[in-house]
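Narrative of activities, Objective 1.

The group set out to show that a structural description can be obtained from nothing but a protein's sequence at a throughput compatible with the screening campaign. Below is one input-output pair from the validation batch, recorded exactly as produced.
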Amino acid sequence: MADGMTNKKFAAEDNHFKKCCEAAGIPATPRQAGKFKRKAGRAYKDGLLEVKRQQREAKNGIND
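Output recorded for this entry:
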């Protein structure tokens, strides 16, 4: 792989990826990790948007 990290290791160690999976409501699997790195899949499409929204709200002091 170009990044030198297997999908299995990425899924287990990358906290940002785990947060995106949690926000999308899916498990952090090696298959999702591969999709995430290719900018595809539910973790990337749904989870990343939710994580960014949460970060923006936290920065602006907005609560649910």
